[in-house]
Write a structure and sequence with these properties.
The complex is a heterodimer.
Chain A: H1 2-7, H2 9-28, H3 37-68, H4 70-113, E1 117-126, E2 134-137, E3 150-153, E4 156-164, E5 169-173, E6 180-185, E7 191-195, E8 202-205, E9 218-221, E10 233-241, E11 248-253, E12 262-268, H5 292-296, H6 301-309, H7 312-326, H8 413-421
Antiparallel strand pairs in A: 1-2, 1-12, 2-5, 3-4, 3-12, 4-5, 6-7, 6-9, 7-8, 8-11, 9-10, 10-11
Helix pairs in contact in A: 2-3, 6-7
Chain B: H1 22-42, H2 51-63, H3 66-83, H4 90-106, H5 114-140, H6 148-170
The chains are: A alpha+beta, B mainly alpha.
Chain lengths: 431, 176
Amino acid sequence: MESFLNRYRNITVLLLVIFAQLILLAVQVKNEQNLPVIRIWTVTAVTPVARVIEGVRTGSIGFLRNYVMLHDADADNRRLRDEVGRLKIENIFLKDELNTADRAKALQIFQAKTPSKMVAGIVIGSGAGTASKVVFVDVGSVAGIERGMAVVTPDGIVGKVIASYPTASEVMLVTDSSFAAGVISQKSGVRGTLKGQGTPTCKLDYVPMEEKIEVGEVLYTSGDDRIFPRGFPAGVVRVVRNGQPYKEILVEPTGLQHGLEDVLIVVQGVHQAIPEAPPANQPVYIASPPPASEAKTAPATEAGTAASSGTDADRLRSVYKAVGDAQNHTFGEGLPGSKPPDFTRLTVTPAATPNTPSGNPGGTQPRPANSSPAGAPPTGAPSVPPPAAGRPGAAAPAKPATPTAAPPPAQPDTQRKANQAGGAGPGGPGR
Amino acid sequence: MDYSTGRLLVNQRERQSSKYRVWVLLAVPLAALLFQISVPRFFEVLGFLDMPLLVVIYFSVMWRNQLAGLAIGALIGLAQDSLSHDPLGMFGIDKTLVGYFVASVGVRLDVDNTFLRLLLSFFFYMFHQCLYWVMAHALLGQQSAFDGQRWLLLGLLNALVGISLYHFLDKLRESV
C-alpha cells in the first residue's frame, strides 16, 4: 500500500486537489433552478446508491419472507384453505336457504294467482323401486289429499296422487311409465296424451299425422283427463318425428326442470284459460272505412256514435234508447203499469256483428237483441260460469289415467266448451 | 542559461530543478496577479495577456516537480479566481492541471531551450483556454463561443511575451 502511494503520489495529490477545488466550485455554483451544484451532485451521486441499497434491502426482506419464512406461509396456507372450505360450505348452505325461500315465495304467489284450491307440500322421499318414478309428499289424507289429485308446481305439472296416507301422499311423476295426461299445444291447439316413459323425457301420443306441431311448442293440460285442470303447463316439445299411425313426439316436462322439493296438490281444480301464444309475424289487415251512404242510413246516429266505440251492451242500450226517443219515451220515468215503448219497431239486421270485418265495422246500425257476439250474450242474461267449477275429478271416480286410455276426441275447442256448459264434464262424456 | 547545446531532451543526470528565493516565489505571482487586474484597466490592448498562466508555466517547468507544479498552479489559480467574477475553482482547477502537466513535461525536456519554452507556452495556453471553455460549459452552463482562431493568435502572442518573461525570471534564479 505504501509503495502504491509512493508510486502514484503525484497523481493522487493532483486528484485530491482537483477534487477539492471541484467541491469548492460546486458549493458556489447554482443551476438555473437556484440549486447549488454540490447539492445536485450529492443527490445525483447518493440516490443511485440509495436505490441500490433499497433494492438490496427489499430483495433481502422479500427473500426472507418468501423463502426463509415459508413455514409461516405454509401455516397460513393451511388456515386459509380450511377457511375457504368452511366458507364454501356456508355459501352452499346459504344458497340453499335462499333457493328454498325463493321457491316458497314463488309457490305462494302461484297459489294466490291460481283459481284452483291447492295445498302445499314438501317432497320428503322418493319411491324405493328403481324404475318407478314416485315420490312421497308430507301432506296426506288429514290435509284433505285424496287419490287422483293433481300435483303441480309453478313450472308445470309434476304428477298425480296415487295413494293418500294420513301423513303423506304418494305421487306418481309425469316421467313414470304408467303416467298419462291430456294436453293441448299452445300454438296450434293440437291435442294428445302425454305419457311417461321412465326416462327424463315424455312422449306425446295420439297426435295424427295430419296435425301440425312444431319443436318448441308449449303443451298445457287440456282438462280432458279429469285429473289436471285445464291451463297448467305440462312440457315443451323437443322432438317431432313422423310415425305410424301417429306422430312420435318427445316432450320435456317443465315441472321437473328445476328439481322437485316443494309442490302444490290441487284439491279443487278450476279450469284456466290457456295463455295466448306469442304473436307470430302475421300480415296486418286494416279494414277500409264504412261507406258514407251506409252511415247516413243509420236510424240512430246518436246511438251509432256511442255504439261505435262502446261495448255490445252500450250499443244495445243505445239502440233501445233511440227507440224510446223516437216514441218520446223516457226510460225510468213511467209508473208501473204504464205503457212501455213499442219495441217491435226495432230495426233488425240479421247477422250484423260489429266485430266481424264483413259486418258493420263502425257499429252504427242497431243489432237485434238476440244476436250476440262470440261467447258473450248481449241480452244481459247471466253469463255461463267457468266450466267445471269443481274439481275435475269429482264428477267421475278418481281413476288415474293410464297409457291405455283412448285418444282424446278430435273435437274443436268451442264444441267442447258448449258441452261443458251443457253439463258434461271437462273430459267429455266418454272419459 | 545555455542555449548552445541545441538539444531538446535531457538524460537522468541532467535533470536538476531550479531554485528561487522565497521573496521571488511570493513577489512574482503577486506581480502577475496585479498586472492581470490592473494593467488591462489602463491598457486594454494588453488584456489578452495571461500573466498568471505564464508564471505557472515557468515555475512548473523549471522546478520539474509535479507536486510543486500543481501546488503553484492551484494557488495562483484560486487567487485569480478570488479576484475575478467567476466562482472559486475555475482557474484553480485549470491552472492546477496546467502546472501538473507542464511539470511532467519539464522532467523530460531541456527547459532552457527557448523554442521549447515557446512551444510549451503556446500549447498550454491553448490547453488552458480549451479546458476553461469546457468547464464553463459543463459546470457553469455558460454558452460562450469556441473561438479557436482567436485563441491561436492569442496563444502565439502569449508565448512570445512568455519568452521575454522567462528570460527575465531566469535572472532571479539562484545559482547552484
